Amino acid sequence: MKDLKLAGLKGEHSSIEVKGVTIGGKEIILMGGPCAVESSIQMKQSAETVKKAGGRILRGGVFKPRTSPYSFQGLGREGLNYLVQAAREQGLLCVTEVIDAQSLELVVDQIDIIQIGARNMQNFELLKMVGKINKPIILKRGLSATIEEWLLAAEYILSAGNPNVILCERGIRTYEPSTRNTLDLSAVGVAKELSHLPVIVDPSHAAGRRDLISSLSKAAIAAGADGLLIEMHPNPAEATSDGPQSLYPEQFVQLARELGIVAGSVSRVFASGGQGDDGETLESLRSQIDGIDQTIIERLAVRMQIVRKVGDQKRLDRVKDTSREKEIIQRLVNLGTELQLSPDLVKKIYALIFEFSVQSQIKSKLTKEKDLELSLYPVGSK
Ligand code: PEP
Ligand code: MN
Question: Closest ligand to 180 CA?
């Protein structure tokens, strides 16, 4: 695409750093919060949940571009204070949408990331305005925009002087009525093939229903997304907008617990919780540990099965492969360090895992050879 002078991929993909949070790096960035800011308590509760889940960024709309002029239009300045205050108290960053010059001016000094909503993706004057500020911009894909139009919209921001654009796929309009929009996960791959910009996914506005958010979020990470923007509300039934697609706080935390394993499977990391544990009971912490222990043992069992298959393909005297062991340990120590795990712990655990793996390979091979011998020379046949 010849006009992607600045957005086009030339070499490496780029990442964007905001106050210690890197979007487009190894870590999957979770952003969550209600569709619209409604009250101080709502934002406090939302921020606590985002923090507890391991999220980094609190969302909340204070200027709502609604389909109907009679729907709730947002709290404006008052809502901005609730959002900023709640995020600050939990050490989170915050993102909110702007819709015109006035709203941009009002939020720009207080908000860490500015969102351009789907309905404004081709509001070129607004794009040029946010191109002149020095905060990162989340650019949502338009309701019926092609990927090319979306990337050219990003080009408007970049060419006006702001290099920090994060693309956000949030579902496009199709003929399918069972979901609000259709989440276009191929757009993540295509955008990353054509552009160096980070890409995040908003499954909430795509699905329009909370029962699909968990699976779509995992699919988005598997598809290569750098982060997720998810609507969550302390009391979705009372939400002024988008209640049916908003997760309950417990669902948000549960989803976050499940994301790490998906992230790991595509060489990314996501660490849920570990922060903001206030209010958690001993019981709930123990039940988290029980869940994690179960996962560890289940995955270890699968690892052993695969190890035996590998062993069956090797000669008995070549079962131990020290250089591969070293490579694995190095990779895992690096990963552990990123996640604040002691290198010693990783090394000790893996020394044991390797020892048992080799024993199990040898045992499996000997059993197989014995079986073969028995089938060739059944007992009593010699
Ligand atoms: C939102 O994030 O609340 C929003 C209005 O999203 P979109 O612009 O994608 O519809
Ligand atoms: Mn919404």
Answer: 1
